[in-house]
Structure formats: C-alpha cells, structure tokens
C-alpha cells in the first residue's frame, strides 16, 4: 500500500490575525484528502530543530477566531544560512514530510523559495498585516489590522475634536505605507506619511495649518513607522511652528498585530488554506496563493520574491482630496 502523503505546516515572521484560520483550513482539508499533517513549531527555527507535532482535526478546534498563531512563530537567522536550510531538509526527511506549507510575509516567502530551489515541495500563504507581499491583492491579517487602526483613530478623533487638537498616530509598516494610506482614507486623516513618498515635517505642518484655517475642529496625521520622520519629532516640529492646533501623539504598535480576525480575514485564510492543500494534491508546488479578481490564484514563488508590491499612489491623492 502506498504511504500517506504528509504535509508540514508552519507560520513564520510577524504574526497576523487569521493565521490560525489558515492552519485550521490546511489541517482539515488535508485530512479530508487522506493526507497527514505535521505542525512545525516556531516557524523556520522549529524546522531546523525538528520541533514537530502531529496535527489532527481536534488540534485545530476553537482556533478559527483566535489571533496570533497556535504554531508560534519566529524570525530565524539560522534558517537564512545554507547550513540551517540543510538541517531543515534533513529534519523534514527524517519526519517523512513530503511537502511544506509556509504561512507568513515577504521574508517567509524568501525562505519558501530557497527550499523549493532545493527540491522541496512548498506552497506559500501570504500572512502579513503590512500587505507588502507581491502577487496578492491582500494578505491574511491586513483587514483585521486596518479595522484595529480604524477603531483606535475613531476614538482618538473624538477627543482630538473636543480639544481642537492635531493627533499624530503611528501605524506599523517598516517598509510599507499600505496601512497608513488606507487608514488615512477610512479614518479621514488630513495627511499620511509613508516610506514610499517622503515629505518634510514642515510640509505636514503647513497642511495642518491650512486645515485649521478652513475651520476644522481637529487634524489627524497618520505616520507610518518607516516614513523617515519619527512621530515625536514630527509632533515637536508642528508645535514649534504654532499651526493653530496643539498636538498629541499615539503609537499604536503591536496592538495592530493582535486580536480576533475579521470575517474577511477568516474567509480569506480559509480559502487560501483549502486551495494550498488542493494544489499540493494536484502536484502543484513552488507557488504562493494570491487573491486576484478572479479568485484564489497561484503565483510562482520566484515572482513573489523578485517583485516589490507598491502602494497605489492614487489612494494617497484620494485621502488628500477627501480630507478637505
Ligand atoms: O509584521 C510586520 C511588522 O508589523 C512591521 O510593520 C514591523 O516593523 C514589524 O513587524 C515589527 O515586528 P517585531 O517587533 O515583532 O519585530
């Protein structure tokens, strides 16, 4: 009798809400297709160390609505080295793993590609609040993070407006302005600062002063973590220039990465998890699941890591127009 096909699954890099929903979908779809699943703990670090556990249907019960990742995650330096990858492949062979599903961001897809180049059957599922992964309209976790930001900014606007203040809010996005730009639209911010389009503190101050002159009761400024200007420095400069509003600042930080996934993220993660396993069953690998207008598609990992997802600058313009 032929041996069962065994899939490994891991989460890697920064966690993102919906990763658990993806794990659940992978495990249950695999079981439905008569495959076995091995959960790899702590991302690629656990792959190098052989931290494995068998995953049954009940092991993924009650996790659909939970943020974070039950498989835990890490940013593994050892796996970036050829020796680490060699050890990981050896561990996979010893455990009888025939394929691997990697749920994570840009760096995780780099690791997935490296393994696929060495003959391992790998499928990636994009999971990142930053939404900076090429090949998918949106990654698992981004929608939840957006909603977290929106809730926070709505609350901050209430108090900003009552005191006629300018509020600076720092969002995550070390290299990507996606969250900041989209937050500017859905939260009605006067200005968004993003890594892709640097502007000066004085330009921001001028925009805030214009808003004051137009009779606005508050100003909201969204500063992406990687914009090039520190949020505190920016607040100081605006205060120094006396633009009408006094400033206050809030750094949202890791709150954006936690919490129960939205319906959208649960659905996206479930669809991608199902499709990833079905693809493996059909003999497809070396690809990432991506959401496209026609549904879930498969994008070669080589393309995913060879391209940079850009923020659509139209949205930056849109935010500006809508803040009048
Ligand atoms: O998940 C991506 C990200 O949120 C970046 O925007 C941020 O810079 C980074 O993770 C911070 O993660 P950590 O503090 O866990 O290293």
Overview in brief:
The chain is α/β, with parallel strands linked by helices.
Give your account of this protein's structure.
By secondary structure, the protein is α/β, with parallel strands linked by helices. It has two domains: 5-141 and 261-305, Rossmann fold (3-Layer(aba) Sandwich), CATH 3.40.50; 143-257, Phosphofructokinase domain (Rossmann fold). Helices cover 43% and strands 19% of the residues. It has helices at 19-32, 43-49, 82-95, 106-117, 142-163, 178-187, 201-213, 231-241, 263-281, 301-306, 313-322; strands at residues 6-12, 36-40, 52-54, 99-104, 121-126, 165-171, 191-193, 219-224, 246-251, 287-292, 295-300. It has a seven-stranded mixed β-sheet with strand order 3-2-1-4-5-10-11, sandwiched between helices. It has a four-stranded parallel β-sheet with strand order 7-8-6-9, with helices on both faces. Helix 6 packs parallel to helix 11 (313-322). The longest helix has 22 residues, at 142-163. The protein is elongated and about 75 Å long. The N and C termini lie far apart (70 Å). The model has no long low-confidence stretch (mean pLDDT 97). 6-O-phosphono-beta-D-fructofuranose binds next to loops.
């Amino acid at each position: 009798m032929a041996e069962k096909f065994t899939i490994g699954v891991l989460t890697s890099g920064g966690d993102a809400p919906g990763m658990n929903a993806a794990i659940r979908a992978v495990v249950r779809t695999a079981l439905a297709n008569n495959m076995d699943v091995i959960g790899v703990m702590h991302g690629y670090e656990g792959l190098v160390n052989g931290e494995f556990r068998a995953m049954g249907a009940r092991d993924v019960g009650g996790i659909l609505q939970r943020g974070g990742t039950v498989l835990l995650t890490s940013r593994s330096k050892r796996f970036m080295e050829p020796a680490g990858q060699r050890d990981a492949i050896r561990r996979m062979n010893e455990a009888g793993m025939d394929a691997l599903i990697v749920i994570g961001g840009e760096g995780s897809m780099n690791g997935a590609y490296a393994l696929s180049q060495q003959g391992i059957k790998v499928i990636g599922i994009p999971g990142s609040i930053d939404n900076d992964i090429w090949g998918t309209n949106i990654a698992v976790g981004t929608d939840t993070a957006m909603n977290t930001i929106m809730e926070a900014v709505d609350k901050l606007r209430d108090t900003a407006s009552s005191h006629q203040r300018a509020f600076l809010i720092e969002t995550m996005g070390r290299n990507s302005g996606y969250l900041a730009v989209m937050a500017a639209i859905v939260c009605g911010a006067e200005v968004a600062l993003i890594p892709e389009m640097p502007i000066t503190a004085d330009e921001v101050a001028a925009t805030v002063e214009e808003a004051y002159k137009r009779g606005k009761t508050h100003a909201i400024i969204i500063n992406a973590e990687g914009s090039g200007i520190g949020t505190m420095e920016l607040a100081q400069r605006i205060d120094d220039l006396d633009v009408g509003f006094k400033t206050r600042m809030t750094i949202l930080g890791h709150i954006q990465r936690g919490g129960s996934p939205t319906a959208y993220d649960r659905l996206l993660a479930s669809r991608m998890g199902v499709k990833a396993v079905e693809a493996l069953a059909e003999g497809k690998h070396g690809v990432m699941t991506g959401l496209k207008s026609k549904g879930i598609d498969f994008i070669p990992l080589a393309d995913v890591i060879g391209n940079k997802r850009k923020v659509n600058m139209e949205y930056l313009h849109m935010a500006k127009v809508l803040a009048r």
